[in-house]
C-alpha cells in the first residue's frame, strides 16, 4: 500500500475516535457531574532506513476536562456538589473509583449510594451511613455530615496521586492509581446542590462539524490515491 494511504488512514482513524468523543460529550451535556473529553493527537514517525521517514498521526489518548461546571440548587438533602478541585470516592464492584456526580440516596442499611448503587466513602475510605431514625441531616463545607446536630461522618475530597492515571470508565465514573485525600483548601462541599456537565453542546456541535469536514478531506485524498493507483495499473496492464 502507498505511504500516502497509510498516513491518511491513521489520520482518519484518529478523527473517528475524536468524533466518538464529541458525540459522547453532546449526549452527556445534561448529565450531572459529567466531564467532557477530547482526543490527543501526536505524531508517529517511522524510520525507513535510507528511504525518507514516514510520519503518521496517532490518537491513542484522551484528555479529560476537569474545569468547574455550573452548580444548581436542588434542595435535596443528599444532593452534594463540589466547588473547586477533587472528586467523591465511591465503592464499585471493581474497587474504589472517583466521581463528581453528587446525587446520593440512603440504601436499605443507611449507606449513601449513587444512582448506580455505588456506596459513597468518607475521608478515610469507609462507607458513609446515616443511622436509622436520624433526622435533620446537614453537610458543612468541610465535608462534615451531621444528623440532629451530631457528626456522622466526614466526606473527603479525593484526587489521583498521578493526574495522568485518571481514566474514564463509564458515565461519570473514573478510575485512577492510588487515589489520595486532598486538603481542605482544594474545594468545598455544598448541600442541596448538584454540579452539572461541563460539556457545552454548542461548542461540541461546532467541533463535530470541524471533525466531519476534516474527515471528508481525508476521504477525498484516499479516493484520489485509489484512482491514481487504478490508473497506473490499467496503464501498465495494456
* Termini Cα gap: 22 Å
Shape from CA axes?
elongated
Number of domains: 2
- Rg, nearest Å: 24 Å
Which residues sit in consecutive blocks of at least 5 with pLDDT less than 50? none
Counting helices, strands and paired strands, the structural category is alpha+beta
Task: Please trace the helix and strand order, writing H or E for each element.
Answer: HEEEEEEEEEEEEEEEEEEH
Count of β-strands? 18
**Major sheet details:** 5 strands, antiparallel
Largest sheet strand order: 9-5-6-15-14
Mean pLDDT equals: 87
Q: What's the number of helices? A: 2
Question: How much strand?
Answer: 35-45%
- Helical proportion? 25-40%
Explain how this protein is built.
This protein is of the alpha+beta class and 238 residues long. It has 2 domains: 3-66 and 199-236; 71-195, no CATH class. The protein has helices spanning 3-27, 201-236, and strands at residues 37-48, 51-64, 71-73, 80-84, 88-92, 95-99, 105-106, 112-113, 119-121, 137-139, 144-147, 150-154, 158-160, 167-170, 173-175, 179-181, 187-191, 193-195. It has a 5-stranded antiparallel β-sheet, with no helix packed on it. The chain has a 3-stranded antiparallel β-sheet with strand order 10-11-12, with no helix packed on it. Helix 1 (3-27) packs antiparallel against helix 2 (201-236). The radius of gyration is 24 Å and the shape is elongated. 27% of the residues are buried.
